[in-house]
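Before a colleague's protein record goes any further, I have to sign it off. Thanks in advance; the entry in question is below:
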Amino acid sequence: MTGSLQVRPFTTLDTERWTSFITQCPNATFFHRIEWRSILEDVFRHRTHYLVAERGGEIVGVLPLAQVKSRLFGHALVSLPFAVQAGIATMEPEAGDALRAMAVELARALGVEHLELRHGEAQAPAWPRQDLYVTFRKDLKPDVEANLLAIPRKQRAMVRKGQGFGLTSEIDRDASRFFALYADNMQRHGTPPMSRAYFEALLKAFGSDCDVLTVLDKTGRPVSAVLSFYFRGDCMPYYAGDLADARDLAANDFKYWELMRRACERGCTGFDYGRSKKGTGAYDFKKNWGFEPVQFNYEYALFKRDAIPQNNPNNPKYRALIALWRRLPRPVVNAIGPSIVRHLG
């Protein structure tokens, strides 16, 4: 493609071309979908700054950004909050460099403390990098039974155990049962929950590319659930919740097998187990399913900081807050949690 390269802010007139571009760009992700822009603005009230690289009238690169400002967690420009990977998407190195330069210029103009670009593969080797997170992805076989046999024997036995307890699964088109399980799980881990309105917004915005699978025990009681995204043939479980006794029922193993089974029947070719922090139970759980970790590279331009921010539960300074959160009444947690977590991203 010929012509000079231009980087400019996104306008609503770009919507269809943005969508067409991310469908074709190999390093674009589900989180580059333009629907996230209105969710970040309407649900979280974050100011967005989406950038477009254009050559000869055609989009050749995109970079979605959102401004997150908090007295507790700082002031940042992030691509994107609540996304595991949504950095520069382009097939042209020149466009990538230009988008990065524009992001730095914008970050300075906004007066943020840091700029964070969440990439899979590193794109700015000289920038400070966070290597805390990994992802887990595996190709799905066309045959359901072949996928079950590909699960390591111990975890396959757990799936069978859940089946033996009479567990079943259903697909929900609203977030009511999911949210109750999710909020219960988040409080046990000492983490503020997202709002139910956020999950309803996801289901509405993404239609058939977002659903909830709920696991029921033999009495019909919901015990575990997962909200998943679908993009270019991949199924991505993203938010999950369960009751405290779900482990005794092997409900989590059963849940993810049921999701994998349904994804296979849907025609999906990949299963993306999503992001986990190294050294955590979630990391070990996914490894036990036979998935191998792949490093995420979160890259930073630091303006008013000396080090990469650590706004995650591993940070020792948050331990007292986590312990306190676990003791709060559920109505209080659900009421004030979303106003806190919106700043975490």
